[in-house]
Design brief:
Layout: H1 2-7, H2 13-25, H3 27-37, H4 44-54, H5 56-65, H6 67-73, H7 80-91, H8 101-112, H9 118-134, H10 139-152, H11 156-170
Length: 171
């Protein structure tokens, strides 16, 4: 696995495209990438999670069947890029939100942290809205957290997107 991790140390668009193509062509490499993406080995875990997200359409069923590993590992992630990639993956698949308590708690916490980039907050809000669609009794709690993002968001777009997601929760 060491040589595989080495592949994820090179940061360039061409290398990322090559890795995604390799994942799409080789199911074993997909599983190896999934293991690396769930690790705490920065920056390779971040790059692996980004590549995993790009390969998601082909491996959606495999990720859904192993979603509990994501739920378990998610609270230990420390890099916002890795967090964002896995939130994007979770937003794109079907899962039982009853099992996603750790992820939901982390997303709520991310919305309150000043140092978290707005894009991570946006993905977190989207995931919370998705969960609230399945568990409507959470809508008001999630709305409270999203309301707090509007005045504290650093960019105009996050404020606009937060308002739109808030409207979805209130429907």
């Amino acid at each position: 696995m060491e040589t595989t991790q080495e592949e994820f140390k090179i940061a360039s668009k061409a290398e990322n495209d090559r890795l995604v193509a390799k994942i799409l062509a080789d199911k074993e490499f997909f599983y190896t990438t999934f293991d690396i993406a769930l690790s705490l080995d920065y920056p390779v875990a971040w790059r692996a999670s980004w590549c995993l997200h790009k390969a998601l359409p082909k491996y959606k069923a495999e990720i859904i069947s192993d979603v509990d590993r994501i739920f378990k590992a998610f609270p230990s992630f420390t890099h916002h890029g890795q967090i964002a990639s896995f939130i994007r993956i979770l937003k794109s698949i079907d899962f039982d939100p009853e099992n996603a308590g750790n992820v939901i708690d982390c997303c709520l916490k991310l919305l309150r942290e000043d140092k978290i980039p707005d894009y991570v907050k946006f993905y977190s809000m989207e995931l919370l809205v998705k969960v609230a669609q399945k568990i409507p009794e959470l809508k008001s709690e999630f709305a409270y957290f999203i309301e707090d993002v509007i005045p504290t968001g650093r960019t105009y777009m996050i404020k606009v997107k937060a308002k739109k997601l808030l409207e979805q929760l209130r429907q």
